[in-house]
Amino acid sequence: MRNCYVRRTIFIIFLSLVSSIALAQVNAIGADGGADGPLCGSYTVIYDAFGASSSIMPNSNGESISGDLGVDISGQEDSNVTVEMLLPSVLTGGGYVAPISFPGSGPGSGVRIETGGFFNPNVTNTFNLGAGGTCNLRLGYTFTIPTTIGHVVFFGEVTIIVNDTVTATAYITANSSGDGCISTCENNIVANGTFSEGLVAGPMPTGKIDHWTH
Predict the structure, then answer these.
(1) Of 139, 120, 116, 118, whose CA–CA distance to 68 is shortest?
(2) Cα maximum dimension of the chain
(3) How many Å apart are CA 151 and CA 96, to the nearest integer?
(4) How many Å apart are CA 53 and CA 121, to the nearest integer?
(5) Residue 170 CA to chain centroid, in angstroms?
(6) Rounded CA separation 109/140 (Å)
(7) Per-residue model confidence as pLDDT tens digits over 127-155
(8) Cis peptide before 58 (omega within 30 of 0)
(9) DSSP characters over 194-207
(10) Phi then psi for 180, rounded to 5 degrees?
(11) pTM of the model
(12) Is 209 exposed, middle or buried (0-12, 13-18, 19+ CB in 10 A)?
């Protein structure tokens, strides 16, 4: 009789767990991010949960953020979700590659908007959806735009897997205007006696020209 009671109790607990899992339906929507401007060299993007926005450094040449990279997850209140992110190691565009990495801790790593807490996006994490039934995550990252390129748009994507079943995709776009890396013009004198590149034009200086930096 006691064994029967134990089996029945275990069976009821098992059904309860199955029912809870079935009710804990999860939705995930990717949030696209990236940067624009005269991109050249290395940059760090940090998401500030208190300011509710991303920033890029350095930005002295007018570089700007085009979106906050991450995912918005919703589901049953107070339920736990596992989140795995498949992160790119490069962005690609125009036959070029731009290395990208995702810090594992501190400012510049992953941030949960609701709490402002950091997380490591390079490993699988477990989050509780809390009383609001939400978990909105944003990512910081570092990337390097190659020098000696013109206008190139680099692309990458982050695949987010929630509870091993729900998949969302967030896209990264780095739109390099080409003004940042092309700064030195060598032996660029045209036949009609003028020098020109982009918006720079004027009379040809006298004498031999080896380099002209603007």
Answers:
(1) 139
(2) 108
(3) 11
(4) 18
(5) 8
(6) 5
(7) 999 999 999 999 999 999 998 788 999 99
(8) yes
(9) EEEETTEEEEPPSS
(10) -80, -40
(11) 0.75
(12) middle
